[in-house]
Amino acid sequence: MRKQKQKLRSLAALLVVALVLGCWVGAAGADNPNDGINNELKYIRENGIFSSNLINQTIINLTDISTTGSVTTKTYVGAGQALTEYEFSVTSQTYGKAMDKLTRFNFEMHNQYYPENIIGMTGYGALEPDTVYFYVYGPEKDKIIWALTNGIPDCLNGTINKSSGGNGNGSWFAKYEPENIDETISKSIFVIGGLELTKSTSENGSTAATTMQMDVAPEIVGDKAYTPVRFLAYSLGVPENGITWDENTQTVTITKDETKIELKIGNTTELVNSEPVKMDVAPYIKEIEIGGRTMLPARWIAEPLGATATWNETTQQIEILQTQEQEQNQ
Question: How many domains is the chain built from?
């Protein structure tokens, strides 16, 4: 049994090597997109980090997939290495079979999003047994890494029948293709100086946008974009009774399912499920006619709830990305 498992791992490793070579080997030159990704991968590995301004990664642990079907993932986003962890169950299968499926999924995603984005897969079996890394490099890296991560359960419970340039086997893979991914991802948009929160959702195969009127606008303070915490929480699916304010301690508490976030005005430490998280700024109160609203950069609320906050300098917009399935099941 041990020899058989080792053989399966060797075959899986060959698949990964073939994938990486097939995707990344190209003609040398200034326009070769491989240069950027290879340099960035080298940088993060040499510095012992998992993500940067240019690359996001998801680490998939398959240790228990052949026994209990349990799989865990750790997704790292941005230079701050914002970490989101998931645990889910899939059909029990051999390590080799799981690796084959993941390799095909990753390869199909690469084909769909290349050359604007580069999607790859590597294994570090010698350092972390039974793990594999998905990584994304490119302008849509935040959106794609969440689609990749949330597609893992679908992938391990299904198959991909088509190879280079194909559309997978339709039913589950199609929602991760470029033309459909915006329906897979729920987007909320805050505009600096604007009082409308716009949120796009998918229903019956089409994407629709809804708006919510806010009583305070996002604003730039220093070099940071601040959003009203209450409306940011609403955009992430936090219910009305999940947001409370303690006047005595000047503390906002946001609760959604098993996640509890506590923010104290003027304090740069937030508590996430009682664990301290150091922020680079402190929340403040923006005075309005009805009293005041707590303001904070979006990432400090979005990331603990499994979402991603991105800033578009050109449009002056803060975009919150979250998978719709994740939003519903948080």
Answer: 2
Q: Point out which residues pair with 147 in neighbouring strands.
A: none
Rounded distance between C-alpha atoms, residue 330 and residue 303, angstroms:
13
124-147 as b/e, with b when 16 or more CB fall inside 10 Å?
A: eeeeeebbbbbbbbbeebbbbbbb
Domain C-terminal end among 162, 179, 196 = 179
Contact assessment for residue 245 and residue 228, using Cβ atoms and an 8 Å cutoff: no
- Cα separation, 276 vs 244, in Å, equals 19
pLDDT tens profile 32-91 = 556 678 888 888 888 989 999 899 999 999 999 999 998 988 888 888 887 777 777 888
Give the C-alpha separation, 129 to 69, whole Å.
Answer: 16
Cα–Cα dist 319/199, whole Å: 10
Write out the residue range of the structural domain in which residue 205 sits: 183-329
Please, what sign has the CA dihedral across residues 53, 55, 143, 58?
negative
Q: Do both 14 and 149 map to the same domain?
A: yes
- For 133, the enclosing helix (H) or strand (E) is strand 131-137
| Whether residue 203 sits in one domain with residue 130 | no
For 238, phi then psi, to 5°, come to: -75, 130
- Final residue belonging to a domain, choices 179, 214, 235: 179
Task: List the strands of the sheet with 308-312, edge to edge.
Answer: 206-213, 196-203, 185-191, 317-323, 308-312
Give the C-alpha separation, 162 to 159, whole Å.
9
If pLDDT is split at 50, 70 and 90, which confidence band does 29 have? very low
Q: Please tell me whether residues 167 and 188 are part of one structural domain.
A: no
